[in-house]
Amino acid sequence: FFLFNNALAIDSNFALAYSGVADNYTLLIDNGFISYDSGYNLARKALDHAFMLDSQSAEITASRALFLSSLEGKRNDAINEFRLALKLSPNYAAAHQWYALELAAAGQFDSALAHINKTIDVEPFSERAWLIKSLILKFARRYKDDITLLNSLNTRFPDNIQFFQPVKRQVRKYPV
What we know:
Layout: H1 2-10, H2 15-30, H3 36-53, H4 58-72, H5 75-88, H6 93-105, H7 109-122, H8 127-139, H9 143-156
């Protein structure tokens, strides 16, 4: 928020900064860091202001799609907004990434993989995109492909424990 608010202090008509604020609130709510009640109106207000300033921006359109899906449960509307965002900016990596997650949630795994692969083509060092690809492969029950991917990621990003985090199982002893 700090950088977006600094940008807005300099230019209160900077639409993309409002979009960034909306994305932050949406993701904080979606990931359980703040409550829906405390963040929804703030996200909605920032998004509405961004859209009022620039209704043709791919970034703002993708932000609206994320908001619709994550906070309003309007998956079909979100998918249409992601398609529009990608029409406006075919190489917008975040839109491909978010759209891939929506498609995976809808069971459209081949399309989801195509979009996450596009994200990776645009941003090959995005560890988040690689993790999402792994997640999509799991959802698609392509476990061998996922293991192969994770092994290659462990080599490519050896310092990232997100790719391989050993599970320590604690054996509990119950009284007999």
